[in-house]
Write a structure and sequence with these properties.
- One of its GO terms (molecular function) is transmembrane transporter activity.
- This is ABC transporter membrane spanning protein.
- It is a multi-pass membrane protein.
- It comes from Tanticharoenia sakaeratensis NBRC 103193.
- The chain has about 325 residues and is mainly α.
- It has a domain of about 210 residues.
- About 70% of the residues lie in helices and about 0% in strands.
- It has 13 helices and 4 strands.
- A two-stranded antiparallel sheet has the order 1-4. A two-stranded antiparallel sheet has the order 2-3.
């Protein structure tokens, strides 16, 4: 009885360590994958290729950061790809029309926030199921991107915009540094702020959190808005690299983001997850795909491997959840 919560009292969750046992397991898995591919493809462990893996993983890692918070809260966001596409075509259209870069970027990021707000409001206020809502907005946002551009790509992004997301500082590509900063912010939010405690509490037991005075509705909306923002930031990185924005951009991003979070230890039942683990999960996927490409393995086998990894991660969570 001494642990009972009173009305208005925020449930206290243990602060998340920077690296936990599951993160260490993911790191060991990454090292094993690296060793296997290094033995099979001598170019795998070169500095150029390792930096390339980090750059290739940066977009998925960015999107997966937001997805992780949603999953920890007990939700899912299937609309991250179309959210990214809509943000991308709006930003690119404004840049091509001569709009100042800060305004164009803010418009794109605000689009992601708005898409996330719509998802969160439908789920938290209207009480709809996250899977159904985000499946619906997946189609809605994709259609909006196609309608906005008449199905055509937006070409001709300025060199200044491309350099903003496609340059390097030292040996590190700017996208890697952007994701590094975003990861630090996400870790601080989850581990050092009341919002992080609320997210963990809602995902662990929503009814208990509500009774304890946690603002459940605002917490859910906030997580989906963060997910939308992360998807938009990933879109900025991609169109900066490509120099164009496609309305079909972001296909299967939700699968990769969920896979990265699951590999990193996020429970699809909610209440558990790790920012460090998600980053490692994204790099695991990036390293796996890079290594398979070096070995000339066709892309559809890489998709098969991603699906197997998600199922395996869910099985690990299922059999370890009770002992956590």
């Amino acid at each position: 009885m001494g642990h009972a919560l009173t009305m208005g009292q925020t449930p206290r969750k243990p602060r998340l360590p920077v690296i936990n046992l599951r993160d260490a397991g993911t790191l060991i898995g990454l090292l094993v994958i690296g060793a296997v591919f290094a033995a099979s493809a001598p170019s795998f462990l070169t500095q150029h290729n390792l930096i390339n893996i980090l750059q290739q993983s940066s977009i998925n890692a960015c999107v997966a950061l937001g997805m992780t918070l949603v999953i920890i809260s007990g939700g899912i966001d299937l609309s991250v790809g179309p959210t990214a596409a809509l943000s991308a075509v709006i930003t690119a259209t404004l840049v091509v029309s001569g709009m100042p870069l800060p305004i164009a970027l803010l418009a794109g990021l605000a689009t992601g926030l708005l898409c996330g707000f719509v998802n969160g409001a439908l789920i938290a206020v209207a009480g709809l199921q996250p899977f159904i809502v985000t499946l619906g907005t997946l189609s809605l946002y994709r259609a909006m991107a196609l309608i906005f551009t008449n199905g055509n790509p937006v070409l001709g992004l300025s060199p200044s915009f491309r350099h903003l997301f496609n340059g390097s500082i030292g040996i590190f590509p700017i996208p890697v540094l952007i994701v590094g900063v975003a990861s630090l912010v996400a870790w601080c939010v989850l581990s050092k702020t009341p919002l992080g405690e609320y997210i963990l509490a809602v995902g662990g037991n929503e009814e208990a959190a509500r009774v304890a005075g946690v603002p459940v509705v605002r917490t859910k909306i906030a997580t989906y808005m963060i997910s939308g923002l992360a998807a938009s930031l990933g879109a900025m990185i991609l169109i900066g690299r490509l120099g164009a924005a496609e309305p079909v951009l972001g296909n299967l991003w939700e699968l990769d983001a969920i896979a990265a979070a699951a590999i990193g230890g996020a429970s699809l039942m909610g209440g558990k997850g790790s920012i460090v683990g998600t980053l490692l999960g994204a790099v695991v996927l990036g390293a796996m795909r890079n290594g398979l490409t070096l070995l000339n393995v066709q892309a559809f086998y890489q998709l098969l491997a991603t699906g197997i990894i998600i199922i395996a991660a869910m099985l690990v969570d299922r059999f370890t959840r009770g002992t956590a």
